[in-house]
Amino acid sequence: MFIKKLELTNFKCHTTSLYELGMVNHFFGDNYSGKSSIGEAIVFCLYGVTKHGYKGFVKDYLQENKGYMKVDVVFEKDDQEYLVVRTMNLKGTTVYLNHKQIKDKELSELVGDYHSFIYCFFPEVFPEEDKSAARTYLIENLLATKDEFELLEKEKSSILSQQKKVDSSKTFYEGQKSVLKRQIDSILDKQKNYTPVPHEIMDKKEKLQEGITAICENLDKHQVVENQLQTRMKVYQDKLKELGPLPYLQDETCPTCKQSLPKSQAETLHFVHKAKLDEVKKEMELLEAELRAHRYQHRKFMEKKSILESTLAQLDNSFPLVPMVELPTSQIHELKNVESTLSELIQKKASLGEDLKKLKHQLGQLANTYQNQINKNLTHTKVELFKQLKNGELRPDFQITYYNRPYRVLSNSEKIRCMLEIIAVINQEKNSSYPIFLDNLESVTHLTQPTTQVLTATVKKGLPLTLKVKG
C-alpha cells in the first residue's frame, strides 16, 4: 500500500490541510502543530478507529465547536488507485470508496486487517498490546496456525485435575482402610475378653434399646411436622406484615391517584381489610394450638426416652460384661474392596503421571518450534512467547528484547529499530508493504531506512507544520 494524498477537514487542530505524499515524508513543526494527528487521521480514515482500536473515542478527533469532520486518503495498491473518504458528524461516521458509500467490512477486504496495518504503521503500539492478543497475533499470522500450546495446556490442566481427584480419593480410601483395620482389631480383642451375659438380661436390654429407637423415630417425625408448622406460621406472619395495620376510616387516599376516598368507600376498605386480618389471625391461632400440642407430645416422648435410657444404663452398670461378638466378616470383605480400589487408584495415578510427562515433552517441543519460527528472521530482536517457571514448566508469555535488553528499558531510537525488525517480518510473512509512521524522530539516530513508505514527525520549535517529501 502506498498513500499518495491526505486531506483533513476539522480533524483535531487541522481545519483544512492537504498533503501530497511520496516514499519518504518528513513532517516538521512545533509541539501541538498536528504532527501526530497525521498518523491518527490515516488510521481513522481507513478503519474508523483510533490507533489503539477504539471506535468510541474517534469522536474526540472532531475539532472543538465543529459539527462535521472529514478525512480523505488516496492510496495505491496492486497498481490501482483508490479514494477513501470518511466523514463524521454528531450522529456518527460514514465511509466512501471511490465516491460510493460502503461498509467498513467491505473496506477492510481492500485495505486488509486492522491489526496488521496498525502494528506496522505505529511501531509503538504492538509492544504495548495485551500479552495474550500480541502472542496470538504472531502465532496465527506469522506461523499461520492455531495456538496448539493453549490446547495442550488445557489437556494438561485436565490431567492435573484428574490427578488431584485421584489423590483425594486415595487419601479417602486410605483413611477407610485404617478405620476398618482398627474396627477389625477391636472386634477381635473383644472376642478374647468375652464373658457371657445372662440371657434374660440381654433380652431386656434389646427390648429397652428397641423402645429407645422407636421413640427416636417418633421424635424425628414430630420434628418434621413441627418444621412444616413453623414454615406455615412464617407464611402467615409474612402475610400479616404484608397486610399491615387497619386503614383509617377518614382522610384515606387512593393508592393510585392519591385523591381522598368517600367515607363509605373508606369504611368498605376498612372492613374488607379487617376481615382479611381476622382470617389470617384465626389461621395463626389454629397453627399455634397445633404447635403447642406437638410440643407437649414431644416432651412426653423425651420423658419416656429418658426413663428407658436410665433403665438401660442401670443394667449396663449392673452387668459390666463384654458380650460375645461375631467375627468381623463384613468389615473384612469391605477391607478387601477398599484395598482393591486403592490398587486401581495407584495404577491410575501412575498412568496419569506418564501422560503428563509426555504432554510436558510435547509442550517443550512446541514451544521451541514456535520460538525458532518467530525469531528465525530477526537479527538483534528476540520475541519470547513463553516464560519458564522455577519448577521448569512453561507458561504462555509475550516479551520483546533488543540486544538481550527488555523493550521497556530501551531508548526511543532503540525501540524503533527493534520494532522495524518485527515490522519487516510481518510485511514479509503477510506479503504486504504497509507504510510506517515514526513519531518523535528527533530522538532517533542511526536509523536504517525501511523499504516501505515512511512518514516521520520531528519537533522544530517555532515552525508551523511543514511537509518535506523525498522520493
What does this 3D model show about the protein?
This protein has 471 residues and is an alpha+beta fold. It has helices spanning 35-47, 104-111, 114-121, 125-128, 131-142, 148-192, 199-243, 263-318, 329-375, 412-430; strands spanning 2-11, 14-20, 24-29, 68-77, 80-89, 92-97, 100-102, 381-388, 394-402, 405-406, 436-438, 454-459, 466-470. It folds into two domains: 2-124 and 413-470, P-loop containing nucleotide triphosphate hydrolases (Rossmann fold, 3-Layer(aba) Sandwich), CATH 3.40.50.300; 154-340, Helix Hairpins (Orthogonal Bundle). The strands form three sheets. The chain has a six-stranded antiparallel sheet with strand order 2-1-4-5-6-7. The protein has a four-stranded mixed sheet with strand order 11-12-3-13, covered by helices on one side. Helix 6 (148-192) packs antiparallel against helix 9 (329-375) and helix 7 (199-243) runs antiparallel to helix 8. It starts with a strand and ends with a strand. The relative contact order is 0.15.
